[in-house]
Amino acid sequence: MSEEPKVEGRSITEELGKLGKQMADAIKAAWESEDRRKLQAEILDGLQKFGDEVTVALDKAGQSDTAKDLRVKAEKVAVDVRASAVAEDVRKGIISGLDVLNAEMSKLVEKLEPKPAPADEAPVEPEAPAEPEAPEAPVAPEA
Asked: pTM above 0.70?
């Protein structure tokens, strides 16, 4: 016969509370450990050296004749694009499209907003659905 842990008199809440405390203690101990501090320092040092190397490489690449030529060519292309008729046509098309979109949005807003009643008139209540009218009975003359 195998032994079963004694569970009478204990609750799930108590057990989860104990487990939570043990997890918190384990995390705290790991965080405060000397190994974690050493690893953190090593990672930070490595990242700093990596950043320094990348910065040096980018500076050297930016000073090369090829990079300078590329920069000059890119600036010329940007100037040409700004001056071209194609860019102006695209700009006008975008403005025209936005103008139409704004007009349509304005119409939609007008339809969705409630209309305020003029001050000299009573507010108009929504009409009830039309009911079929009953034929009027002829009125008998009074005697």
From this structure: no
